[in-house]
Amino acid sequence: MSADINSLYPTPPLAVLREAFIGKRLNDIPAPAAIVDRAIFGNQLSPGSVSVLVDHVDQLEHLKSFKEISGYRLGVFIKIDTGYHRAGVTHESSELSQLVSQITNDRDSAGCMTLQGLYSHAGHSYGASSADEAIGMLVNEIKKLQLAAARIRDLCPNMKHQPLDLSVGATPTATSIENIGHFRNRVSGSRHADSLSQFIEDITASYDVLELHAGVYPFLDMQQLATQASPSGSAVDAHSPISTADIALTVLVEVASLYTTRNEPEALIATGSLALGREPCKSYDGWGVVSSWGFDLGPTARRSGWQVGRISQEHGILTCDPSVQTGLQSLSVGQKIRGLAGISSSTQADQMRKEMKFLMYG
Q1: What gap in Å lies between CA 244 and CA 232, rounded to an integer?
Q2: Is 191 helix (H, G, I), strand (E, B) or coil?
Q3: C-alpha closest to that of 275 among 303, 304, 254
Q4: Using CA atoms, how far apart are residues 67 and 343, in angstroms rounded to an integer?
Q5: How far is CA 291 from the centre of its chain?
Q6: DSSP class of 264
Q7: What's the CA angle centered on 337, arms 319 and 229, to 5 degrees?
Q8: Which mean pLDDT values do the consecutive 10-residue runs of the chain (362 residues) have?
Q9: Does the bond joining 13 to the residue before it have cis omega, within 30 degrees of 0?
Q10: To the nearest 10°, the Cα dihedral for 345, 347, 352, 355?
Q11: What phi and psi values does residue 53 have, to the nearest 5 degrees?
């Protein structure tokens, strides 16, 4: 489980912490100054509940205080860059060998931390447009982490039989695995699905553990609908692509003003990037779609004709949704409307901050 630990401070009651994180793990790449916060947090939980991602040898020096505060060694994952190029080292790089050597051979480091595994995030998979394409990206992720694990064992023979957690995924790649059975039953098949099955069998036969992490999987959003990586959970046909009916998280917003005399009608809503995110969706030029909820559009309609076409931190501008041909639905100031977020991770984070404040302050 990945989370922004700083959003949980001041620390909630211990009972709340243990109920929320028992049997789970928090991962992130912390700023050096935040290690003390993570150690204090880890002290409230069981050993192994907090781990960090690293991709530079200089980060290790800042991790050594964790054990002194928390009472146990810190689990370390090396972040592997498998194509997203946001963070991480490549499996063949000298940076990887430097990290492994420092973690496992340096006496001070080895006494404070343990190499728990390898981690990648295929953020570029949000650009996928089919389940087979997403499976191909997942295959690439697993392959790169397997190569990194083999290199680590070449560098450190004493780790030859030590299991490593190979943690891969983003929502499109992690959910695409649900389609393997479907591809196997098709006459044409899928070379990516066949490769993925073989990789999973190889890892099962080894010492390593494969973990798939998926960020917005429980909720889905318009971005996931655009990738078409996951089968529908609501359709009669289990292998139908996802639709708006599968999106669980919506945002209730208020219309703040109307602009009917502009070149095209627009409206101001009291919700912006804090709840809807910074990045537009790949399938349309906007940050969210206004659903048909609250409008008299009939039982089959899903979109109202409005979308969030421009955005600032705390406000959004509703513009015409070009995919809807039936015309715009009329709005009124003060009206509550329900939006489908383009990328719901920001929506979840915004809601989490509000819920934690409620738990702490009532």
Answers
A1: 10
A2: helix
A3: 254
A4: 36
A5: 24
A6: S
A7: 75
A8: 48 56 58 74 76 92 88 92 93 96 85 92 84 87 93 90 89 80 54 77 81 78 79 66 79 94 94 84 82 66 84 93 78 91 70 44 40
A9: no
A10: -160
A11: -105, 140
Instruction: Specify whether the backbone of 77 is left (phi greater than 0), alpha (psi in -120 to 50) or beta.
Output: beta
Residue 156, class by beta-carbon neighbours within 10 Å (0-12 exposed, 13-18 middle, 19+ buried)?
Answer: middle
- What is the C-alpha to C-alpha distance for residues 230 and 245, in angstroms, rounded to an integer? 13
Please give the Cα distance from 170 to 359 (Å, whole number). Answer: 29
Neighbour-count burial of 229, counting CB atoms closer than 10 A to its CB (0-12 exposed, 13-18 middle, 19+ buried): buried
CA angle 331, 332, 337 (to 5 degrees): 60
C-beta of residue 305 within 8 angstroms of C-beta of residue 336: no
User: Which residue stretches of 44-90 are H helix?
Assistant: 65-70
Q: Which of 145, 28, 144, 140 is nearest to 76 (CA)?
A: 28
d(CA 246, CA 76): 35
Dihedral of the alpha carbons of 102, 104, 105, 106, in degrees to the nearest 10: 50
SS3 125: helix
Mean pLDDT of the chain: 79
* Torsion, CA 314, CA 320, CA 323, CA 329, rounded to 10: 100
Which of helix, strand or coil describes residue 106?
coil
> For residue 349, what pLDDT is reported?
61
What is the helix (H) or strand (E) element at residue 51, kind and residue range? strand 51-54
d(CA 339, CA 30): 33
DSSP single-letter state for residue 63: G
Which residues touch 332 (CB under 8 Å, ≥6 apart)? 255, 258
